Amino acid sequence: MSPELVCFNPDCPERYAIDAVLYQCPKCGGLLEAQYDFAGVSPAKLTALWDARRLSREPLDVSGVWRYREMLPFIEDTAHIVTLQEGNTPLLDARRAAEYAGFDAIQFKHQGYNPSGSFKDNGMTAGVAQARRLGMKRVACVSTGNTSASMAAYAAAGDLQAVIFLPHGKIAYGKLAQALEYGALTIQVEANFDQILALVRRLTEELGIYLLNSINPFRIEGQKTIAIELLDQRGWKVPDWIVLPGGNLGNVSALGKGLRELKQIGVIDRLPKLAVVQAAGAAPFFQLFESDADGEIENVEAPETLATAIRIGAPVSWEKARHEIRTSGGIVESVTEQEIADAKAVIGRCGIGCEPASAASLAGAKKLRAKGVIPQDADVVGVLTGHLLKDPDYVYHYHTGQLATPGGEKIESTFGNQPVVMPNDPGKIAAFLQSRE
Ligand SMILES: *Cc1c(COP(=O)(O)O)cnc(C)c1O
Ligand SMILES: [Zn+2]
């Protein structure tokens, strides 16, 4: 069987060519998923090949996505690939974070170390490769920030025009700055993310522009290598839990698919449990699991959180995400603005740092520990999705006691670190330093 796009709806048997320009099943509207035949693939040969590539200087071998290209066989001609040496992100031990959340240990897979500073790069290199393979000249996305930063970078590197749609006024500055610097045509619309996505879906169809939102099945293919690289870094030792933030739920869908495929091939023999954490003000997926997990998701009309990367009321990939949570025996949690802010500061104190949405992983892990869902001695990996410097306003406001929730409630700077203003007086400064020893 050659690679195909398969409808994700279990009641719909439709399959499509891998080079069909589709984002959803034309028959039933279901999400699409790339499927491959991995029968006969030897896990030992595969991992040996990936090991050997670590000695190679070839750009595709150096990429933390394309090193694993046997898992992404939808691309036939590697000339279509644009790499910025994405992936290769560290897996870090974080003692203070473990203590804070009540675990013996915790590791963070820090996707903020990517070229544009978020995990979106893992997916975007794959989505842009497909755009080029299809002969597209323009790519578009609507974004809370990181998708646009990433798409702008890869489009620029791959000679495509990037068209970016953003909700006006509700974006972290670092991300907008990136889109502008990478040369994207940037349109700010007076509407929220979910409304703009509907608009852009129409426009891309009418104008023949390739859509690179996370509904695009090839972005999911790239993002699944986050799980593959993570397991590789652990010598294929499967953790008990992987905890990550959820907005549109493309990332949990991708990690889940990657892990399932590794298990199918025999590279790993069991699946880690996946825990998705949402911000309480934008938690439709959490609410789905709280009510009737078999039912339909109920969108949140006006999602609110300072963690703008997960400020999503109508998650595109919720059905895939539900499948991955269930297949892995995982769970969905929600956390408050205060819990996110404090967890973020603790991650900072580890010398690691991350953007607000990423810290939902530690905040959620702490909550699941407190509820007894995850034991103290569990082997836990948190995914940090974006870089600390994506949202410097948030950081400054937290540490100086000026951060408030979207509803106007003060967020306590529990781990605040105020800069101190002093006169140009060595005696006074020396006395101050001694008092703080
Ligand atoms: C996109 C993003 C998320 C949310 O990921 P989904 O795939 O939409 O669930 C979380 N954190 C950061 C930093 C992001 O950029
Ligand atoms: Zn279908």
Task: Give the helices and strands, then pairings.
Elements: E1 4-7, E2 15-17, E3 32-35, H1 43-52, H2 59-62, E4 91-93, H3 95-101, E5 107-110, H4 120-133, E6 138-142, H5 146-157, E7 161-167, H6 173-181, E8 185-189, H7 193-207, E9 210-211, H8 217-223, H9 225-233, E10 241-245, H10 250-265, E11 273-279, H11 284-290, H12 318-328, E12 331-335, H13 337-349, H14 356-370, E13 380-384, H15 392-399, H16 426-435
Parallel strand pairs: 5-13, 6-7, 6-9, 7-8, 10-11, 10-13, 11-12
Antiparallel strand pairs: 1-2, 1-3, 4-5
What are its keywords?
437 residues, alpha/beta, Rossmann fold, six-stranded mixed beta sheet, four-stranded parallel beta sheet, 16 helices, 14% strand, binds pyridoxal-5'-phosphate, binds zinc ion
Q: Please report the distance between the alpha carbons of the first and last residues.
A: 67 Å
CATH class of the domain at 91-116 and 219-399: Alpha Beta
Largest sheet: 6 strands, mixed
What compounds sit in this structure? Answer: pyridoxal-5'-phosphate, zinc ion
Query: Looking across the biggest beta sheet, what order are the strands in?
Result: 4-5-13-10-11-12
What average pLDDT do the residues reach? 96
CATH topology of the domain at 91-116 and 219-399: Rossmann fold
List the total number of helices. Answer: 16
**Unreliable residue stretches:** none
Query: What is the overall shape?
Result: globular
Q: Beta fraction of the residues?
A: 5-15%
Rounded to the nearest angstrom, the radius of gyration is 21 Å
Secondary-structure element order, as H and E? EEEHHEHEHEHEHEHEHHEHEHHEHHEHH
CATH second-level architecture of the domain at 91-116 and 219-399: 3-Layer(aba) Sandwich
Write down how many β-strands occur, each being a DSSP E stretch of 2 or more residues: 13
Share of helix, binned: 25-40%
Based on secondary structure, the structural category is: alpha/beta
